[in-house]
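Q: What would this complex look like in 3D?
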Amino acid sequence: MITGVRSRGARFRSTVFGYANLLPFIFFALFPFYFMLITSFKSNAELYSLKSVPLWIQNGAIVEHYRYLFGRTEFLTWIKNSLIISVTATSISLVIALLAGYSLARLRFRGVGSFGTAVFITYLVPPTLLFLPLSQVVNWLGISDKIWALIVTYPTFLVPFSTWLLMGYFRTIPREIEECALVDGASRMQTLLRIALPMAIPGIVCVILFGFTLTWNEFIYALTFVSQSTNKTAIVGVTADLIRGDIYYWGSLMAGAVLASVPVVVCYVFFLDYYVSGLTAGAVKG
Amino acid sequence: MAIGSRALATADLRGAGRLARAREWWEQEHVFGYGLILPAFVLLACLVAYPFGMAIYFSLSDYWVGSPGAFVGFANFRDIFGNEVFLQTVRNSFVFTAIALTCKAVLGVWLALLLVRNLRGKRLLRGAVLLPWVIPTALSTLGWQWMISAPGPNWLGMSGYAMAAVITVNVWRGLPFFAITVLAGLVSIPREYYEAAEVDGASSFERFWHVTLPLLKPVLAVVLLFSTIFTFNDFNIVYVLTRGGPVNSTHLFATLAYQTGLAGGNLGQGAAISLFMLPMLGLVVFFQLRYIRRE
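A: Here is my prediction, written as structure tokens for the whole assembly.
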């Protein structure tokens, strides 16, 4: 009885405490996006006036910056490039990682452990360590300045990550089911495709989502390997080509930043739980 | 005609026999296993291991963009060690990593403790918190740049403030990773421990210190190690926000390597600079393999 009364009061206080303390974090997380959004709708006069209030739109919202983006820049080409690169690189990586992940999680052969470790180490190697030599490799392959340069290099960080993630999913499938299939005369490839694959679908969805997000957001390779404007990705196009000389056109810059984030945000909104589980699996299961 | 069809049949039979033998060979566990990792192996060998070897070779040569270099031994390393900009970058990297990591760890654990409560709209709250991690960093950093420099003083032109800004954006971007992963760790702690501690009359701080924190240690260690690598190797935020300036006060290894190796064309020295990220990486890999994967 007494504990019941106490815990009701305590629970109320704890709820208020929880929300009150979360508020600054939510504000911190979301405010920059709000600021970017309102900037993209402000007129230039208001943007650069010292007397204007930065926190909301005073003189009416305009879509001039968006119109400029579509009419006078290569924005749509950049979006198209990004889509092609992300979808292709993710698909290639998914196939390679599925095969490798299954092999490393399920099959017994010499060297399986050390290859698993090698995958883990390459997973930790940051792109910033490899971009200089890779820029030369891309040159030699004759694909520098083309979107192929990115389709070929993005699997270098996607495959280790995806293999690692999928290994975790394959390990959770009971071995007996596959053994039964093998005894019944199914080939190993059939067992992989018909039994293991369907059970790893959550992992596959995770790989697709992360692959798309990581490739869409990638910056240093895209900045380094491609300099021709019509072959740029959305991210590099917006950050590099909307700034002419030292002049920043903040309205159109923010409009570009908002629009180029949309594909990722849409994925995120629909598959939030996969992002959360993939994020923790990638790090914690490792 | 009869002979022809018989010849065809035997050829078919021989083909079938060969096929059966090939299939048998392929069905062996080790052959199948090696076969499946082959594509990944080729990819990682050609596009990770080989470039890595090249980076080491570059660092020992006077390789410039467009001109084949000659082996020069440790000359590049000698040069960069005598370079004030490089020494400044080393200092920057450690200051940046230490402060950003501490903020992310402390705030991340605190945020995870708040998120683990059974509040209404839990899913929405988590979604909002994770958002900075999902949005392309280069673009959100542009947003920050505008927010910081929008009509008013040129904060990013002052070295102390510029470093503070770079750290703030890094914390903003990396906090979700910490919070969400620690949250997963918190959820896995059995409730009984807390109930037992409560029966013993432990205060909420004591419960945190003696129950939560020790049980969180493995997760926290992994997150810290991962985050050390990503923070130490940061490129996007510094490149977009300050380009390493003002007067090199925010350069990190990656941005300096980019500026020297690509913008400046001195690939040898650029590679030597980027290799300085390696000892840190090696240390982290060592700890990961030694202590964490053992469990």
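A: To summarize the key features: The mean pLDDT of chain B is 87. The radius of gyration of chain B is 27 Å.
Q: Very helpful, thank you.
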